[in-house]
């Protein structure tokens, strides 16, 4: 079966989560970031990387678990069944605060697709929810129900505000993700020390950034619907909402 490039990466992420759930106690980690928003919270944006929080697992133990997953015959064969293979894998950061893997995938047509797996080792935020990934996400890949610990919309919203405020390089995807959460869920009575800085940063992201960082990760049939004026409207709604929460 042929997929869009973003779908190949998503299949890799889903397969990794399925194997991780077999190797690591599900009480010790939680999915966050763009994958969490797409898999559980209804976002249309595909994610290039997969991010998780983890607690009380030794660095060497988690490193071994991920190495085992990526090298396992069942994992490799499932990738091959979708015309995928891992052509490069590195472990550029393995510390007490962050563990990161850089992966290069290649499709049967020779397309090279980079992705990352990253675990933050600063503990879990509360509450962590546990449920199956949205069937609408799983169906195109012919995958059965997949239960994963993850963060709900309120925690995801707070995390995105903090990310928008504190990233070294401001990302348009944080604004889009906040826009999605504001539209899909009621986000009220939220106090955060990062609101003012998040508002400032949201003003400084251009449509070109939105095209590169967000629009390119939308389903192809939806990409033509968005233009510079719509991006300005998205920015304005997010800024107004965050200002109202201060």
Structure in words:
This protein has 246 residues and is of the alpha+beta class. The chain folds into two domains: 5-151, Roll (Nuclear Transport Factor 2, Chain: A); 154-245, Up-down Bundle (Methane Monooxygenase Hydroxylase, Chain G, domain 1), CATH 1.20.58. It has ten helices and seven strands. The chain has a five-stranded mixed β-sheet. The chain has a two-stranded antiparallel sheet with strand order 6-7. Strand 3 and strand 4 (98-107) form a beta hairpin. The longest helix has 19 residues, at 5-23. The chain starts with a helix and ends with a helix. The mean pLDDT is 95.
Give short descriptive properties of this protein.
single chain; 246 residues; alpha+beta; Nuclear Transport Factor 2, Chain: A; Methane Monooxygenase Hydroxylase, Chain G, domain 1; 2 domains; 5-stranded mixed β-sheet; two-stranded antiparallel sheet; 7 strands; 20% strand; globular
Secondary structure elements and pairings:
Blueprint: H1 5-23, E1 29-32, H2 33-40, E2 50-54, H3 59-71, H4 73-81, E3 84-94, E4 98-107, E5 112-120, E6 128-132, H5 135-138, E7 147-151, H6 153-166, H7 172-184, H8 195-202, H9 207-213, H10 228-245
Parallel strand pairs: 2-5
Antiparallel strand pairs: 1-2, 3-4, 4-5, 6-7
